[in-house]
Amino acid sequence: MTIALDGPRVAPLAGGRPESLVVLLHGIGANGDDLIDLAQYWGMLLPRTEFISLNAPFACDFAPDRLQWFSVADRAPAKLLEGARTAAKLLDPCLDTLLAERGLAPERLALVGFSQGAMMALHVGLRRKEQIAAIVAFSGALRDGAALRAEIGGKPPVLLIHGEADDIIPFASMAEARAVLEALGVPVAVLARPGLGHSIDEEGLIAGGSFLRERLSPGTSERQ
C-alpha cells in the first residue's frame, strides 16, 4: 500500500525551522481541516512548533466524501485491531518522514488525536521503538490492551481527556485506558469533563496545551 499522508499545516509562530512537531489526527467522518485550528490555541504556547493535521487515508463508510482511519462497519475487536494495524502501516512511516524532513529527533514529536484519531495516536505512539514526547487523546479509547502489552515500544506521557456525557465513545473508556496504561508503566494523566459530549471544550484545550508545552518546551529532553 503506497498512500502518502498529508494535510493542512501551520508553521511555527516564531518563524524559522521548527524545533518540535505536533501531529494532529482527526476522527471518523472528518479530515485534517477539522483539527488544524488547534494550532491557533496552542501556537502561542509553542511558538517554535509546527502543527500538521493529517488526512486519514480511507473514505468514510457512511460519508464517502469524508475520511476515516479504519472501518467501524464490523465492530468485532479483531476487525478493529486489524483496521488500526493497516492504518498504522501508513501513519508510522509518515511520522518518520516528517521528522527526517525537519531534522527532528523522535522526542520532539507529540501526537494529538480526537475520537478515532485518539485511538490511532495511542496505537501508533505507544508502539514506536524510539519514544516520542507525548500523546494527547481526546474522547478516545484503547481497544487493544492485550496486544499492546506484547508490542509496546516507548512509554511517552499520555493525557486522556473525555466528556462525561459522551454518547459516541463511552466515558468509561477513559478509565479502561488509564488502567491498561498504568499497568504497563506508562505515565498517564486524565481529565474528565462534566456535561461534555463527544467534543473538545476550552478546559480540554487548556489542559492539552499545558501538557504539550511541558513536554515540548526547549530543553525538555535534556531534563528527562
TrEMBL record:
- Specify the Phospholipase/carboxylesterase/thioesterase domain's residue ranges: 17-212
- InterPro entries in the record, alphabetically? AB_hydrolase_fold (IPR029058), LYPA1-2/EST-like (IPR050565), PLipase/COase/thioEstase (IPR003140)
Q: What GO MF terms are annotated?
A: hydrolase activity
Highest taxon listed in the record's lineage: Bacteria
- SUPFAM superfamilies cross-referenced by the UniProt entry: alpha/beta-Hydrolases
Q: Does the keyword NAD apply?
A: no
Q: Which family does it belong to?
A: Belongs to the AB hydrolase superfamily. AB hydrolase 2 family.
Name of the protein in question: Phospholipase
Naturally occurring in which organism (per UniProt):
Methylocella tundrae
